[in-house]
Design brief:
- By secondary structure, the protein is of the alpha+beta class.
- The chain has 2 domains: about 10-200, Fructose-1,6-Bisphosphatase, subunit A, domain 1 (Fructose-1,6-Bisphosphatase, Chain A, domain 1), CATH 3.30.540; about 210-340, D-Maltodextrin-Binding Protein, domain 2 (3-Layer(aba) Sandwich), CATH 3.40.190.80.
- It is about 30% helix and about 20% strand.
- The chain is globular and about 60 Å long.
- Bound molecules: 2,5-anhydro-1,6-di-O-phosphono-D-glucitol and manganese (II) ion (2 copies).
- 2,5-anhydro-1,6-di-O-phosphono-D-glucitol binds next to helix 7.
């Protein structure tokens, strides 16, 4: 039955435009392109289990087409759609060492640049566990009409115009944040549209889930260890009910943290003093989303949205989640020595 209650992503962004007559519609256009890329990537992710039948990555499938690795496919799909949209001057991706300039007259007159991890959670692709796409949109600082420059991408997270992610999970969701709020859309496969399912997402101020690769415990700093010991202790007390949850896909782990409350971390370790996660296209977008939803994100020392990146692929220790849990972690990290 037709229901007016189902608002699609496009309808939602148009509604936002109606409320803000000064808006130009460029961000809506960009989100539409990213949403379309998400649908194409989703279709490919859903076929991933057939790869042995259709042909392994790097080989030819039965139709004689070359089969791409999924992260390569996701990257090319996003770049292609952004390139052909009217609203993106350039992009930076986990899959490309350098900035990708679209460098044609239309793109050069666009005011936005996009940072992205086209497919995050690569170790989970082969085992059918959720994976995701992460993106952030900055207004460029280089002059309109000229090609974008590196500095357009090395901006503090607090300057983001929008950030979001697509989660290829038991259902496929697109969640994005602007300064006006965080909203989640679930892909309705019957009509192929993202439909508003999680309006105005707020991260609960406290939670019970802590999410970390516990295998690294011995290599973490004393403050982090101390906090994890406290979580473990609370897990033994039925009234507290703390639970450890970690899929190894940050998009899935942070999505749970955002909706249910909790804390997610990828700390520095003895042999990786900057942790593993990438500042520009993994941590900065998620920090913005978390902050708009009422949560907190840090690198263990300062608010992550204040950090100015120095390189496209720089790594950072990373902590984010419910404000009360983050306050306790901060306390532990100040008390405990941060070096293992
Ligand atoms: P990648 O970008 O290589 O796909 O890495 C995934 C990330 C992130 O999604 C996840 O939280 C983390 O790596 C898992 O790493 P560990 O296996 O070291 O815990
Ligand atoms: Mn990644
Ligand atoms: Mn990736």
């Amino acid at each position: 039955m037709y229901s007016r209650k189902l608002i699609t992503l496009d309808e939602f962004t148009i509604q936002e435009l109606r409320n803000f007559p000064q808006a130009t519609g460029e961000l809506s256009g960009l989100l539409r392109s990213i949403g379309l890329a998400g649908k194409r990537i989703n279709a490919e992710v859903n076929r991933a289990g057939l790869v042995d039948i259709l042909g392994a990555a790097g080989a030819e499938n039965v139709q004689g087409e070359e089969v791409q690795k999924l992260d390569d496919f996701a990257n090319k799909t996003l770049l292609d759609l952004l390139n052909h949209s009217l609203y993106c001057a350039a992009a930076c991706s986990e899959e490309n060492e350098n900035v990708i300039l679209f460098d044609d007259p239309i793109s050069n007159s666009s005011k936005y640049v996009v940072v992205m991890d086209p497919l995050d959670g690569s170790s989970n692709i082969d085992v059918n566990v959720s994976i995701g796409t992460v993106f952030g949109v900055f207004k460029r600082i280089s002059p309109l009409g000229t090609p974008a420059v590196m500095e357009d991408f090395l901006q503090q997270g607090k300057l983001l115009v929008a950030a979001g992610y697509i989660l290829y999970g038991s259902s496929t969701m697109l969640v994005y944040a602007t300064r006006r709020g965080v909203n989640g859309f679930t892909l309705d496969p019957s009509v192929g549209e993202f439909c508003l399912s999680h309006p105005n997402i707020q991260c609960p101020t406290d939670g019970k889930y802590y999410s970390v690769n516990y295998g690294g415990y011995k290599t973490f700093g004393k403050g982090v260890q101390q906090y994890l010991d406290a979580c473990e202790e609370r897990g033994t007390q039925p009234k507290e009910g703390y639970k450890l949850r970690y899929t190894g896909s940050m998009v899935a782990d942070i999505h749970r943290t955002l909706l249910k409350g909790g804390i997610f971390m990828y700390p520095a370790s003895a042999d990786a003093p900057n942790g593993k996660l990438r500042l520009v296209y993994e941590c900065i977008p998620f920090s913005f989303i978390m902050r708009i939803a009422g949560g907190v994100a840090t690198n263990g020392e300062v608010d992550l949205l204040e950090v100015k990146p120095t390189g496209l692929h720089e790594r950072t220790p990373y902590f984010l989640g419910s404000s009360e849990m983050m306050a306790e972690l901060k306390q532990s990290m100040q008390v405990g020595d941060s070096i293992a």
